[in-house]
Amino acid sequence: MTDRVSTNSKYLAYASSVLAMVIGGSSFIFSKMVLAAGLSFSAMIFWRMLIAVVTAGMLYFCGLFPLQLRGKPVIKAMLCSLFYPGFGLMLEMIALNYTTAAELSAFDAMVPVGVMILARLIFREEQSGLQRLAIVASVAGVLVIVFSDGFRMGTSHLGHLIVLAAVICSCCYNLTVKWLTSHFSNTEITFLNILTALILYSCVFLLTGGVGETAGLSLAPGQLPRVIVSLVFLGVCNSVATAYMNSFSIRIIGATRHTSFAGIITLTAVIMGRLVLGEKLLPIKYLGMLLIVAGAWGANYFSPAARADRGR
């Protein structure tokens, strides 16, 4: 019975990873839509995280979001949250002003490689050669999708540096979550993530004159309903739901296997671009999708932990 529960938990963790990445890929489209409507990045991340905290608070009072923070290292956890969403998400949103959502998602797909290297260097995590090769294949699939139709790099090298900094923040967070999951529940990690981000983004919002911008409703005509829907999606689905799913998945299958699904972010961005923006896919992009899926599967199947499970 215990083995069956454990197996079911792992399958649920895999599903959580995939769904979190799908939502993450969709968030780039929604974020781009909000910025295109005339809202600044500081206003967008502030309202997004305020909606997330309010949602978590409502769920808490309904008894659906348990929190037991007394006596726990909350300050240390909030410092971990500064990596992501904290500065990491803020840097991603800034980068959208300098580059495209597709390019940003391509850089994000480098996170599993960074996590794999750091996990090996810091935690001496055991990794197989085939697992490394599979992760590389997944990243290669991302690059095929992004560059297959004559894609040009962003016009600003500053944008690339900002995205790189965001990727580093995301890698660091994925590694610190290993410590977080030993002290906090999934809901507690989620709440501390969004609360820390809200405090940070409120400061940025005030310092950049966001209050005056909001008072002036500096949006393109007729864009308010779309912006509200996008912000609700980003706040509830992307900030609350994915934070919970990410921490749950990392707790069960580890940071390396969780982030091996990161290529799905770009895969989702491509599909959403087709459905929402009417973009057409070149045949070679399907090769990229295949590489992403195969790489994500291989990174899990060939991992030492998965091999040990199969040997039982």
Molecular structure report:
By secondary structure, this protein is mostly helical. The chain has 14 helices and no strands. α2 runs antiparallel to α8 and α5 crosses α7.
Question: What are the defining features of this structure?
Answer:
globular; 312 residues; mainly alpha; 14 helices
How do the strands and helices of this protein lay out in sequence?
Layout: H1 2-36, H2 41-61, H3 74-95, H4 101-108, H5 111-123, H6 129-147, H7 157-180, H8 186-207, H9 210-215, H10 224-253, H11 255-259, H12 263-277, H13 283-301, H14 304-310
**Rg value:** 19 Å
Shape: globular
**Separation, N- and C-terminal Cα atoms:** 14 Å
- Approximate strand percentage: under 5%
What number is the mean pLDDT?
A: 82
The helicity comes to: over 70%
Number of helices, counting only DSSP H or I runs of 4 residues or more: 14
- SSE order: HHHHHHHHHHHHHH
Instruction: Give the low-pLDDT segments.
Output: none
Classification by helices and strands: mainly alpha
What is the number of E strands?
Answer: 0
Sheet with the most strands, sense and barrel status:
none
Describe this structure in a few short sentences.
Helix content is about 80%, strand content about 0%.
